[in-house]
Amino acid sequence: MKFFHENVLNEKFNGKLPLAKKSLKLPSVLSREEVCGIIKVTTNIKHKLVLTFLYHAGIRLDEVRKSEMVRHRL
Questions:
Q1: 20 to 30 A from 2, CA-CA: which of 11, 23, 47, 51?
Q2: Taking a C-beta distance cutoff of 8 angstroms, is the pair 74, 46 a contact?
Q3: Are residues 19 and 2 in contact, defined by beta-carbon separation less than 8 angstroms?
Q4: Which residues of the chain have pLDDT under 70?
Q5: What pLDDT sits at residue 14?
Q6: Are 51 and 38 in contact (CB under 8 A)?
């Protein structure tokens, strides 16, 4: 709205626009015991290696989903 008034109509915009509120929700994080439990019950050695590497490297799930490693077969 402000952009339209100031750049298209060449008028000063005096209205107030409400800003979007930021979410204060913290991400859920697994405890060390929960992560160790997940790694222990994994039977495939390749999956166990990847999970262990990702956990110790501190890589987030979103980063894993977007990575090239997921797109290629190990």
A1: 23
A2: yes
A3: no
A4: 68-74
A5: 79
A6: yes
* 3-state per-residue secondary structure call for the chain: CHHHHHHHCCCCCCCCCCCCCCCCCCCCCCCHHHHHHHHHHCCCHHHHHHHHHHHHHCCCHHHHHHCHHHHCCC
**Residue for token digits 């859920």?**
28
Count of CB atoms situated within 10 Å of the CB of 28: 5
In the numeric block, the tokens 């990702």 are attached to 54
Q: Which pair of structure tokens corresponds to residue 5?
A: 């008034």
For residues 6 and 10, what is the distance between their CA atoms, to the nearest angstrom?
A: 5
Q: Is the pTM of this model over 0.90?
A: no
What type of residue sits at position 18? P
